[in-house]
UniProtKB/TrEMBL annotation:
This is Transcriptional regulator. It comes from the Bacteria. GO terms for molecular function: DNA binding. Gene3D superfamilies: lambda repressor-like DNA-binding domains (1.10.260.40).
Length: 61
């Protein structure tokens, strides 16, 4: 919860790059299609739809 509060204004791309994940690597880890990751890449964390957010959040912490 504290992680989300602190980073909710950062984009998914920024958080993904901090962990050195490519779109393809993150998609494989969360078992999602890379096109879904590309769609939410430019969104701020608070704007990501809940089903996707709950899957990617543990890997971006």
């Amino acid at each position: 919860m504290f992680f989300e509060f602190r980073n909710r204004n950062r984009t998914v791309k920024e958080l993904r790059k901090d962990k050195c994940y490519t779109v393809k690597e993150l998609a494989e880890k969360v078992n999602l299609n890379p096109s879904i990751i590309n769609k939410v890449d430019s969104l701020k964390l608070r704007d990501v739809p809940e089903p996707v957010k709950s899957k990617i959040l543990p890997f971006l912490k």
